[in-house]
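R.M. (postdoc): so does anyone remember the format we settled on? I'll just put the structure tokens first.
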């Protein structure tokens, strides 16, 4: 009986591994869409608020879950975070939203690694590999924290990009844990102000959000973030 050549066996193992991961990802996506249908979520503010608000003591747990898997159930992060303020007030919305963002970020980071980040890095040009290595440094972690804190930036892509680097899980988790409450507070405060019908609070929340965005108006700051994440 002839043994299978080593290169052929290695190729088959890689294909089998890729197929298993692709299948698992497909099941994850399908589960998210099923959950969206089961919960009656349309991705709009009212449907999410109604779903969470009618669950009583289970509301916080379901809300944290929605924020954690919002990409799978197609709920925009702005909608999810404003609902926190609408249902739980500023403090509750900030805490529960931050927990959900942390879960989501770490999940995406680990999923990116599991899907083959190391193999992907090996296929990149030396210049891109150097860029990803630089993003793993203290400066890269700082840039990640800055992006995660700002309320109006899409953050999922940055969490995935961090997973492609050699940044440690501990550094990534620390940056996310420290800055997520800043992002969630802005949305929770805004949602709470809507409930109270306070124009003054809405204007204040908008002013604070704009103030937080001011550094991104500086070209050097934007250039630094693009450089760290190869954007």
């Amino acid at each position: 009986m002839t043994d299978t050549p080593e290169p052929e066996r290695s190729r088959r193992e890689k294909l089998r591994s890729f197929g298993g991961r692709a299948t698992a990802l497909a099941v994850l996506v399908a589960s998210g869409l099923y959950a969206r249908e089961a919960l009656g979520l349309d991705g709009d503010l009212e449907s999410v608020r109604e779903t969470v608000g009618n669950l009583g003591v289970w509301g916080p747990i379901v809300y944290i879950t929605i924020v954690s898997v919002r990409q799978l159930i197609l709920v925009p992060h702005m909608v999810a975070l404003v609902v926190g303020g609408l249902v739980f007030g500023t403090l509750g919305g900030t805490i529960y939203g931050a927990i959900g963002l942390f879960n989501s970020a770490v999940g995406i980071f680990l999923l990116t690694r599991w899907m083959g980040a190391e193999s992907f890095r090996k296929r990149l040009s030396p210049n891109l590999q150097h860029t990803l290595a630089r993003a793993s440094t203290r400066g890269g972690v700082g840039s990640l924290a800055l992006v995660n804190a700002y309320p109006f930036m899409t953050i999922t892509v940055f969490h995935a990009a961090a997973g492609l680097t050699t940044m440690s899980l501990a550094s990534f988790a620390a940056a996310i844990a420290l800055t997520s409450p800043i992002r969630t507070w802005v949305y929770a405060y805004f949602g709470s102000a809507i409930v109270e019908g306070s124009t003054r609070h809405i204007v204040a929340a908008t002013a604070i959000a704009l103030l937080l965005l001011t550094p991104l108006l500086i070209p050097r700051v934007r250039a630094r973030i693009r450089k760290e994440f190869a954007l």
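R.M.: ...and that's the designed sequence above, right after the tokens. Also worth knowing: The mean pLDDT is 77. The chain is about 80% helix and 0% strand.
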